[in-house]
Amino acid sequence: MKNQNFEIAIAQSNIDWTGRKVTGAHWGTIGVKNGNLSVSEGKLTGGKFVIDTASIKILDVTDPATNAQFYGHLASDDFFSIDQYPEANFEITTVNNNQVSGNLTIKGITHPISFDANVSIAGDTLTATGKIVVDRTKYGIKFRSGNFFTNLGDTLIYNDFDLNVNITAKAA
User: Fold this and answer.
1) What total number of domains does the chain contain?
2) Which of 55, 103, 106, 149 has the most CB atoms around its CB within 10 Å?
């Protein structure tokens, strides 16, 4: 086996997100802008990918006006400050069996994070999936968080949100 580099195939890669609140959940997609993965001896060893925060879509809100309003709120400083921070990124620091560790940067704030990933290589194609659980408050996203506000009742939004990452990459 050898060392290989894989470029992420943007059209074949996606991230599904889910955010939860007391009264339910919202979900949608967010795009991968670019990235690469490194493999040695058939095992993932490193890489990074860039998330296009402006591409966030809300799939559970079907009314166009409500959806646009919700997008505007997610784009605002209450959440992702998309005008100032149009990208988020994840850079792998270590891989131990199927546990991937790295640095996640959202809104210019970086924290270490780890998650389990399933990686497979068939010919010149690498596929990787994993669920990243993110505590939004670590990245300055405090809107309706019980850690920072009291008496929220059924307007409370839980701190953790999920990113279900599905990456397809081609040998460079």
Assistant:
1) 1
2) 106
